[in-house]
Amino acid sequence: MDLRAATWTDVRDLETNLAVVPVGSTEQHGPHAPLGTDVLTAEAVADAALERTDREVVRAPAIPVGVAEEHRQFPGTMWVSPETFRRYVRESVESLAHHGFDRVVIVNGHGGNVDALREVGGRLTRSGEAYAVPFTWFEAVGDHGADMGHGGPLETSLLWHCAPDLVDEDGLEAASEGAADGWGEWTSGANLAYDSAEFSENGVVGDPTDGDERRGTELLELASDALGRLLEAVAERDVTRPEPR
Amino acid sequence: MDLRAATWTDVRDLETNLAVVPVGSTEQHGPHAPLGTDVLTAEAVADAALERTDREVVRAPAIPVGVAEEHRQFPGTMWVSPETFRRYVRESVESLAHHGFDRVVIVNGHGGNVDALREVGGRLTRSGEAYAVPFTWFEAVGDHGADMGHGGPLETSLLWHCAPDLVDEDGLEAASEGAADGWGEWTSGANLAYDSAEFSENGVVGDPTDGDERRGTELLELASDALGRLLEAVAERDVTRPEPR
Amino acid sequence: MDLRAATWTDVRDLETNLAVVPVGSTEQHGPHAPLGTDVLTAEAVADAALERTDREVVRAPAIPVGVAEEHRQFPGTMWVSPETFRRYVRESVESLAHHGFDRVVIVNGHGGNVDALREVGGRLTRSGEAYAVPFTWFEAVGDHGADMGHGGPLETSLLWHCAPDLVDEDGLEAASEGAADGWGEWTSGANLAYDSAEFSENGVVGDPTDGDERRGTELLELASDALGRLLEAVAERDVTRPEPR
Amino acid sequence: MDLRAATWTDVRDLETNLAVVPVGSTEQHGPHAPLGTDVLTAEAVADAALERTDREVVRAPAIPVGVAEEHRQFPGTMWVSPETFRRYVRESVESLAHHGFDRVVIVNGHGGNVDALREVGGRLTRSGEAYAVPFTWFEAVGDHGADMGHGGPLETSLLWHCAPDLVDEDGLEAASEGAADGWGEWTSGANLAYDSAEFSENGVVGDPTDGDERRGTELLELASDALGRLLEAVAERDVTRPEPR
Amino acid sequence: MDLRAATWTDVRDLETNLAVVPVGSTEQHGPHAPLGTDVLTAEAVADAALERTDREVVRAPAIPVGVAEEHRQFPGTMWVSPETFRRYVRESVESLAHHGFDRVVIVNGHGGNVDALREVGGRLTRSGEAYAVPFTWFEAVGDHGADMGHGGPLETSLLWHCAPDLVDEDGLEAASEGAADGWGEWTSGANLAYDSAEFSENGVVGDPTDGDERRGTELLELASDALGRLLEAVAERDVTRPEPR
Amino acid sequence: MDLRAATWTDVRDLETNLAVVPVGSTEQHGPHAPLGTDVLTAEAVADAALERTDREVVRAPAIPVGVAEEHRQFPGTMWVSPETFRRYVRESVESLAHHGFDRVVIVNGHGGNVDALREVGGRLTRSGEAYAVPFTWFEAVGDHGADMGHGGPLETSLLWHCAPDLVDEDGLEAASEGAADGWGEWTSGANLAYDSAEFSENGVVGDPTDGDERRGTELLELASDALGRLLEAVAERDVTRPEPR
């Protein structure tokens, strides 16, 4: 049930403790893909999964600004500090838990949010306020995952499928040509770079022309299936904390 | 220019320092209106104003969860603490200002956010990071303002106009019957109540059946006109801080 | 019972849960009125109300520095950040509640404190630590309220009554001549100004020569009566939080 | 110049960078002395020193609630956390420094504030915002200092001199009989006690009947002389930070 | 140069801007390995690298308590919150940078610290206070990395080499038998577990008997070589932040 | 039992609630003594006391960086803010208390930590999380205490005894010649100085050549005896908080 469109009386009548909170970022995705990519894709995956499941699940509005200072050299990129992001997500989840929706999957579309969400999930879960697990869709698409990049084949494919009007075809060629091969600059297992502009001229990592609508369809199916399985697991899990040894 | 749909190269090519950030809340609006009312209406007003203006204005994604603990007794209401809300809005605006969009109108659809947004605007403006002014649409609709309430005639009218499918007609009668006459319980100029459930059985203040689509059309026109004028004023204002006396 | 003058054994013997905490500001009030105006008036109103009531009420010392950065261009104005002010007031009230004085009226003399005090009251009340309600005296003086201003007729009148030595008669003429007509600079329901120096040359809003000692006497009577009624209401109110709907 | 009684135009005309901020506590002082003792005495010492000095000195209002949780078992004791106290004092001083009053002596009447004030002074001074030095009057009264206690001979003497009406003569005998000999319970240089109720039945340390009005007169003279010398030293000191070695 | 053993005059005479800060954790490592494993190993790797390099490098004392609440069910495990850990590490590095040691490798021995250290490094680097890069030794040992676990073959091997007395041989068999195969409980790319006690009976992941002294020797060589290369890269890197696009 | 060297199974088998946490600083100690002096001495005293006591006591790793900004003009000095130090120590102690080691002596070797540790102890104790008492070794060595200084006779003596290789004999003469007589610059009981470089050219206070190995032996004996007595007192103390009066 989409909270944005439901009345409180609708919500009152639900019999579930499951919720999803889509979380993205508003940040550069190259000269061809919109700044809203990470929100759009997170919402697409969340909604597709909810369509497929028989369980009742509360669907919160998407949180649109995340941990993205790493893209600040690219115009239009928005961000908040990790600490503020953690607070905003955590308290949003706590308000859901207040109504009994205390098993929550945070459906994430942005790599830069991953660490912060894991920390939030741990704090909520250990305190007993909610059992909250982050799910990042591109970590759940099997072998495709290796091609992730940034504004690369995976995200561009999913956009072709979900929001084709938002892919700037004129920008694609430039995106492909200027794309970096990989994320970061690595020495001895350490990433020497903190800003994407250190290693990518146009903000893209991975060749977006390796994606197409068909791949997007498959990615959505894989990701939403995975999220469906996760919702089952979260619903059924014994979340009592272990006894001291 | 809607950041969600634009590429960073689109944003780079803009020549403006103006931005709007819609801000709402996901909270009960009675048995007839959706929890997303305050976001929907803030976005509707912002978008209508941007359509009418000749200026280039950056349009940020809407911030969906605000200061709404006062409605926590009603299922589905989400909220964050005022401090977290202030941080999230302030840092979001700072990230826009980083790119030169440092004259910002925060377009607000929720009464509970008003104090926090004023504080954020003051801090941003005095520090020189951005000139930020909050605008709450129902404070700019002339005589209509007196009917504001909560889930009452104004918000319901605007929904009839902008998102008629989200008004639950079955709930309207109950909404009307159970509505409180006014917001709060007052003695000596002080509101004794902190939670809306202290004075409203069903969360509604003001009779929503006093609204209709036509009134919604007028409200949108009034509010978006007002926002247009405010954008002009914000664009033209001398924002240097006064000299010490 | 005035805590400043009482011993702990005096306090121990009280049978009440009511307290008042005067809160003001040390800030410019024009060339004719003292920086301490908001503390003086808050204390005057609080003390007058306590004289009139039969109830036992604990009277805390006044908190002298508030949210007043808006006057920082005027020499001598002191302020703390809103967050620090909220913490200081909240924890002061919590310490009273620790001893059982957990129904508290915060008697305020400064407009800039209003939002912060409402937030503090909400937090204390919802957490169950104390039931705390802010009362701002010039919001409880009937039709006089429309003349409020800053260093204007109301405050000046009350000073004529309570502390006539502190009104600088030589400054009155200048105050009157340089006074602004209203607080702020408004467009579309939004205040474009954040500092009082943006719209008032000498820091005054409203003509202080419209006040006199007689008006001050009446204001004190009105305000202290109102506070007396509020204390009754606070003492008698059922403060259990509403049940979830 | 007492800020509470001055207009901003008075303050503007000052030619000084010196200020004092009295700081106390509202806390139990035995069955004979008022909860306001530490504020009263800090103000008395500050005002006496200002009377004797030829320098212009800004005199801020007294901060009435300090770090006093150690007395929380005694009714009426108020306190804030050390962190909140530090913030409130620091920002108050910063607001004075904003106007050029950036050499500040914090005149303290409460032992529990000492550590916090030293930390505040260090932070302000090292950041260059203000040169702020705390002065605790009973640390500057020569051999009398050894008798300090709490509600004991020194504070009681000073009250006899400054506010004799506030000494409860009926409570004196009980105060004397129940007084502890020393502050704390010590083993190996460590104080095992955190609350004064652990070692004092009635909250008193030191026999208050060892004090009288004459001793109070002498104490005020000693303390205000000492404060006068400190103001000289603070005014004349080179406060540039040392160069790195 | 080891700061613990150097005088400030020694440090003054250094000509370098490079520093290392070892960071570990005091937490359970199974029934056979000491709680100090992560500090010991981080220090061993740091010291071995410093021995091999020709560059002058400041060596800070090791920070012994990290982000380890995930092991709290096992007696003796110490931890601080991620936020406190980030503050402690960040400010420690800032103090080094104050003296000009502003290229810093944080040598880490604990997986639970990784996310926090990356956040700290980003903040320090983007603010320009220091260029700080975390290095986690077991991410830089080539193919061995796949065997990492917790108290498993890698850490146990390194202990056999660096601190053989601290491996409890009696506990090894139990460690081996009760060890979990992998870290966490995974569904759809999400780890459902937050505490190690959810998936490991005795706290061990990976079979420690797959390690021996020879492997430890090799690990130390691999890790310290890698750290040496990283120090070169950090010393030589252009750390000016990229220009806005 | 030293946590660094113990397994969790060792710790599980303990029957005690006593722990010690050594706390020091990494800061200049003159041209003759190492930056690590305060950690070394704190650990030496803690370990000597644990050797002498029959009680089982958990021994945490030493916290190496403390409140030492006062020495920042001297190269190599590390520090964190008082607030961060308090958080780090407090949460470290809380993690010990989580396992039942909730009577804790914080063994301190640095004067600059004293105020912060007292605040931490108060907060932990009043909240009931742990009974924590700081012990600063040089406050428990009888008449020697008067000679304390900084890098002076006491610390140097203890180093001669515990870590003679770390005393730089070549630096001793310079240390002696450039040493200040006392800590700070005092007027009217107030210390006008905030940085040690304001009153000591080489960072030393007190003549280190007044110390020798024999005095070090005696100091260690005195301090560890005192700590042993304190451990007894902490173990036996009734730590229930007093009843309200």
From TrEMBL, chains A, B, C, D, E, F:
GO terms for molecular function: hydrolase activity, acting on carbon-nitrogen (but not peptide) bonds, in linear amides; metal ion binding. Keywords: Hydrolase, Metal-binding, Zinc. SUPFAM superfamilies: Creatininase. Its cofactor is Zn(2+). Pfam families: Creatininase. It comes from the Archaea. Coiled coil: none annotated. Signal peptide: none annotated. One of its GO terms (biological process) is riboflavin biosynthetic process. PANTHER family: 2-AMINO-5-FORMYLAMINO-6-RIBOSYLAMINOPYRIMIDIN-4(3H)-ONE 5'-MONOPHOSPHATE DEFORMYLASE, 3-DEHYDRO-SCYLLO-INOSOSE HYDROLASE. This is Creatininase family protein. It comes from Natrialba swarupiae.
